[in-house]
Protein 1
Amino acid sequence: MIQQPESSPFVLDNTKLMQITAVDVRSTASISIPGANGPLVTIHPDGRLEYGPGYEPDEAARLFWDAMRRWAPSPMEKQFGRPLTERINANLARGQKAEETLRTLALMFEGLQRLLATSSRDWGEYRVDAWLWAVLLGWDCKEDVHDETCVHGAMEEMQQRHGWDDAAVAKARRYRAAVRAVEAFAEEHPAAGHVYLSTGCLHGEHAYCQSMTGQQGEKRPGRCKFCDARCTCSCHGEAEGAA
């Protein structure tokens, strides 16, 4: 039951002000913050606090705010709605996974290329060997400016030697272009520069990512707990610019 007395004006420094009266809110239920061994804190309708076994203020506060975050919509949900927010978060997660896969592929290609390039084997002699070289290193000249050291026509020679049709040559060049794209990505995003996206930001909880305290204790705001990589979420743009 809510009882709201009528407000009455009063005068302060010759200025008429409206008196603010407290609202008496009576609830019939208690609010509990559950813990591993029962309620950590119980808030009774009369405002009385009852502490349970194993009560720790930090743990109780964390559980309280975790519950509030689950109950309240995230800033992204308020702006975009739940369905679109879930799609954005899912795409962010897939993008992060794809970047990790590309870096792994780049390392794999680098190892295979080194193996082929340092081997004394004639990689153009046999059909399968020639195909591996075409995809991983390419028979075409890669130089932008050509000189007498450049070798031209190697792909055409392999095509004639091994009976590849034009479609096979086009496929080999397409696969080689994909390998080079992975190589370019690895150069632009080296493995040492960990691309980090906070789990909080991934789920729209940007304030949690930027806070000083995490679920396991003190943390560095907006940074990877294993290295100094910044969170890539756009919500950290201002902080990064100020650093």
Note: The first strand starts at residue 2 and ends at 3.
Protein 2
Amino acid sequence: MIDVILSARCVRKLKRELKIAGRNEIGGVMAAEQIADGQFVVRDLSVQRNGTPTSFVRDPLQHRKFMRRFRLLTGNNPERFNYLGEWHSHPSFLALPSPPDLRNMHDEMHDPDQASSFLALLIVRLGKSGKLVGSTHAFRRAFAPVRVRLSAADGVSVQEEVDFRTQGLWRLLQHDQGAVTSTKTLSQRILRISV
């Protein structure tokens, strides 16, 4: 089991950057501390702000510099402090990986220069109330991606995005006391629940 825990500093940084970006996608890499077996606290995030409303493509050079700086600041202790994976926003969509996101992480995981045994992908957005909403997925070679637990530390919070495809809620929401709910009503209920 893998737990990704966002530090209070990173939650504040993400909220601030998401507000500034508005409808444009932004992203970067996550630098984390391993605090126990399978538990990682994201201590810092790089931010690249040149996305569009429907896409974000990471610039590897910018983020390599960020990771070099992080490693220097944490005493070059890669067993404890290291690159955890990627993050980006979905300001207009559910905070879940799209097919291109899945392909990009698969390619990253299978890059011959990739030494990590797994990589995490964090997708975030701001809910209507300004709360941070997100999901994390882990990627390993020769395995399908798996959703992992996302939480926050130090008195801040992050709401896990609801995934109707895997939790069977879609079917549950389609039936309202034995009667099938209309598509319009269903969409309204989904939006209310996911925010």
Note: The chain has six helices and ten strands.
Protein 3
Amino acid sequence: MEKIIIVIVVLAMLSIPVLGMLRNDETPEVVNDNQIEEVDEEEVEKESEEGEEETDYQDYIRSNRGGSVDIAIVLKNIVEDNDENLIFELMLNTHSVDLESVEYENLVNLKTDKINVDEGFSWQLTEGSGHHLSGELKLPKTYKGQNIIDNDTEFVEIEIKDLGGVESRKFLWEKDELNNIK
């Protein structure tokens, strides 16, 4: 019995170099986990009935993985019309925080190259519960009589403070993206 075990071990050891020669010698590509983005193939090249290319929702999603909460956020006005409000859709995931009890409207600050807004936000849960949910942060398009975003706005930055053990998370959309606001 001992001889059979020794023969099996020797054969296994001899087969390792052979298997190594048979495998593909290409160096595996290293991908930064923060750069991985799920893409729905059907969404990438949508075209409307008139033949114009529709704005791809995926291009405007910003995300942050940190602390105990993962956040993805999109400035929905880029892909959907809304005359009254700026709308930011938040998609949140965690395994340790009750996301439903958070008052998101009190954790948010919006900044552009011209204006800083830290009040007037409203929060509405749209889907999910507990540890996995989505909702909309809304803010009127004007603040103190001034348009928050206009044709000259260089950037919009949303900051979410003190969520899931992370002091500050910032999400940025730049001028070329803001030009697509409907």
Note: The longest helix spans residues 2-22.
Protein 4
Amino acid sequence: MPRFSELLRAANNLKLLVAIGRSGGDLRSVADLVDNMVATPQMDACLQRFRALPGAAAMLDERYPPLQPDLARLACLAEGSLGRSYADLIQRLHYDPEFFRPRPIDTEALWLTQRIATTHDIHHVVCGFGTHPEGETGVLAVTATQIGFPAYVLLTTAAQLSTFRLQPERFPQMSAAAAHGIAMGRQAACLAAVRWEEGWERPVSEWREQLGILEPADAAAYGLKV
């Protein structure tokens, strides 16, 4: 029976990955993929890796609240601060800061899933990856590398395979973004275990120095400044 359930989940993952590819990254399909991996051995392994990181176990045990940003307040912070940079990104791209699917956080797997979902755009700001497909692959690769977050492992792998097969002219940039994210993930402190809300006023450059992000992607072809 467990084997049958795993086959069903794999088939559903494949269907969702196809839907994500065809839609150009439909958020509902991405959320479906994320949720499809919550109760899996892969998520169990991800949680073990996360819990072993400095400060992560405390966040899990206290169910540190998912991000709920006050964009109006953050937009008034100093230019170059994390809060101001985050608010500017959300407003410039007309993003909904609550794009993520509401989830309960009563289990460790659901808490980690929601924490990663709500802080996704902060990772863009701190890492410097843009919001086009290559930039998204780069930023997802950071967390995929650091804790093996299941949906992000699938998405980063699928993005490269799909580009290689269907858009080979884009593959060099896609693979470069993924490699950049992997290298950043290996070098930097775990982004999923950071309490961003306690340092909105701090400069992004200071956060990067603390976390060990030595080569942000801002000016790359897949970066935020391009």
Note: DSSP finds twelve helices and no strands in the chain.
